[in-house]
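hi! just following up on the protien thing from before. the input was this:
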Amino acid sequence: VDLTAIPLFVRAGSIIPMGPAKQFTSQSSGEPMEIRIYPGADASFTLYEDEGDNYQYEKGIFSSIEMKWDDAAATLTIGTRKGTFPGMEKSRTFRLLVVKPRTEKNETVTINYNGKRKEITLLDKKER
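and the predicted 3d structure came back as:
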């Protein structure tokens, strides 16, 4: 079922990652991961990733990326990646989407992330 076909309630101040459809965990689609931001409050989220097909995560072999949304500044901070695992993408593309429920136009920005801290302002002052 597509997200446009069902009603969905999301609390203001939420960050939700949306990955491309896969047939199996190690499949790479080449598409960017979409990070949906629902403004209205500050938010934080930790993106966790591992190999997906074994128990190495139990030995600490995984990565995490902390994301923080500052609602007043309309800024998303993507933290420095912590950890590593075999087959991990060294850099990746995120499609950042600020969902504006009362309008048809959502703010979308595509960025490249190489594991280093990034701060992105997504809305200009008149849109906040």
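Residues 69 and 76 are 5 Å apart (CA to CA).
The radius of gyration is 16 Å.
cheers
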